[in-house]
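Sat 14:20. Reprocessing the chain from the morning session after the first attempt stalled halfway. Input below, unchanged.
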Amino acid sequence: MNSLPVAIRTVRWMVRDTFRQSLASKLFWVMLGMSAFCTVFCLGMRVDTPGERERHPFEIPDFVPKGEDPRAPAEGVPEAGGRMSLGFGLFELDVPRFKSDAVKFFQLRLAGIVADTAGVLLALLWTGGFLPTFLEPNAVTVLLAKPAARWTLVIGKYLGVVLFVALHAVLFVGGTWAGIGVATGVWDATYWYAVPLLVINFAVFYAFSAFLAVWTRSTVVAVFGTLLFWVMCWAMNFAHHHAVGLEVPGVTPSSSVLIEAGYWALPKPLDMSGIFFDAMNAGTHTEPIRELEAVKKKGKFFPELSVLSSLAFAAVILGIAVYEFRKTDY
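Finished this time. Tokens:
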């Protein structure tokens, strides 16, 4: 039986080997280059809010594009009071009259769309081959000959990939936050909430990718199986909130039980986005998801339990992957 120090050394070595693999495959530099590109893009951000003043505590923060609705001023809804240019003038759009609102409006889309959705899916796509490559017989048999428990190899590789993505999440969020701050003078620290939520979201789905990798040893299955699983989880998450929040007619007690069971058993990517938007106080800066808002109003949205149940799924599926690897013959 292996001692704890040997297990710790093995996990640490596997983490280091993952970073070495990312450098050898040039993936490290690709992801770093994308973060650098987004940072430079943010440095080219300009926000012009003429006549900006102190915000009234009861002022309506929402806005409509200038001239779009002639009834807006009479009804108390302010028109856009500024212009934002992005990428050194490549794009321009109407923004609220307060610079801090304009910056948050952009950060929400940068973190919620570019990082939380596209970023997580790209990370799953690009890192999907790490474990299948490692599990090829000509590679793993060398390690299996050493006095290290098999579970430490899988857990070490999993942690290595998660830490690798966590590093790049910090670089992306930190770089774009600094770029926006330098360009506009607005330093909104709530944007940093994106880092832990992105890492948790990735870690949960990468556990499923690790299971597929151990089970099939196929990069194609690990990558596309995980992407399809993400779509399925998002659909289940959405269907649950639609059924519970909007009380859809025709839903039988049996289907309600199945929807509820599926919701709590599977990861919840839609909930993770909602938690991030709540952390950034995004309610007045972006169009809320109707189903998620309906569940919140009914008091049936439990963010802490949502995160914990997603992490529990990751722990269970990773445990199955370890068991599968332990009984596999090489």
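Residues 9 and 321 are 21 Å apart (CA to CA).
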